[in-house]
Amino acid sequence: MFLRLLYQSFRRQQRRKLLAGIAVTLGVAVATAMIAVGVDVGDKINRELRRYGANLVVYPADAALSVRIGDQELKPASGGTHLKESSLSRIGKQVGDSIDLLGSSARIRGILTTGGAEDNAIVAPLALVQQLLHAPDAVDKIYVSALTKPEDAFARRDPERMTAADRDRWYCSPYANSIALQLREIFPGARAQQIRQAAQNEGTILSHISGMMLLIAVASLIAAALAVSAAMATTILERRQEVGLMKSLGATASTIASLFVCEATLLALGAGILGFLLGDAIAQRIGQAVFHSGVAITPVLLPMVIFLALLVTIAGSAAAIRRALKLDPVLVLRGDA
After folding, report:
1. N or C terminus: fewer CB in 10 A for the chain?
2. 231, 301, 240: which is closest to 263 by C-alpha?
3. Degrees (nearest 5) of the Cα angle 102, 108, 114?
């Protein structure tokens, strides 16, 4: 009998159930797209930011004595380790022309425009520069563009004061600080530190985008819950005589509540799966439009989305179910309620 009542409910109220299902499907689809993009957006934005320059710099330990005044960097005197500034004034040539570098002739292969300090420098193969400076196997600084994870409270902890397990987790996490430590291990006697502006801006951008996506997802779920609530309220109003008859025949409050909860659960399962598929399609379109690549959907997202659909549907139905349980069967069957 219970299953028959459940079947008759969907058969006789197809329009109401369809409207509620569409509301849940759309709300879950938007939430799915926002969650999927939000999870994957960190790596994508990180890759985009990597195109605009390094976020780590490695330099000799004695270079730490340098002092920056305005836009000028002052370092201790070290002979023969830099190109002559006077050579820069002779640039004004075209691609294919020859240029004199410390007595050696080199051909210009292209004009580099980055908007950074490279615009005012001569860029040459490292082997050629080492040969000109008579400093084989030597570099002044190493700029590293690493794919990093935005800093959090755990990233800023001192690894020397961590437990062995926490230090291993910190060391294996792609934080800029942990990568800097690994770089110092590779280059003994060197210092490695973040280029703070790049790292901090990256974290700020990611936090703003994640917050915006979270607000959109929450707003869509709230809208879906309100739509379900309105649909269920109308359903209870239309079925009040059925509820009254069930009560007069001895149906308990738990039985009646179970009937409506099962209806909401079946509706949520169907709408959740459809919303997941639609949200996946929306996320892929967003990824292609913004990042020119697809968005990776993690398998754990499906049960999460179905849980959200259940939560939204049950929450939207709760008020209507409570109203149905308070109906007086005598008044309902007499037509006074």
Report:
1. N
2. 231
3. 105
